[in-house]
Amino acid sequence: MCHVDKKWSLALPLVLLGIRTTYKEDLMSSAAQLFYSELLRDPDELLEPAAPKVEASVFIQQLRRYMDQL
User: Residues 8-61: pLDDT tens digits?
Assistant: First the structure.
């Protein structure tokens, strides 16, 4: 088996979601799109994107201003 974990049943829902949302070239769509008439959202699409990274020099300046206000 490809999973080291002995409880493969815990990974099954995610594997099945991946199979349902995978684009099939011969069908020109995914199985979920054929069944639901729309695309399923992957779990990573439900999360908000991470905040943009701030450069260290800008962060230090903002931190100094904040600490001065305290």
Answer: 788 888 888 888 888 888 888 888 888 888 777 767 766 777 777 778 888 889
Note whether residue 12 is domain-resident: yes
Rg (CA), the chain: 22
What are the structure tokens assigned to 59, written together?
A: 């962060």
Residue 50 lies in a domain: no
**Is the alpha carbon torsion for 35, 13, 50, 4 positive or negative?**
negative
**Does the structure show a pLDDT above 90 at 64?**
yes
In whole angstroms, give the CA distance from residue 36 to residue 40. 8
The residue whose two tokens read 């903002």 is 62
pTM score of the predicted model: 0.45
Q: How many domains does the chain have?
A: 1
Two tokens, residue 35: 């069944």
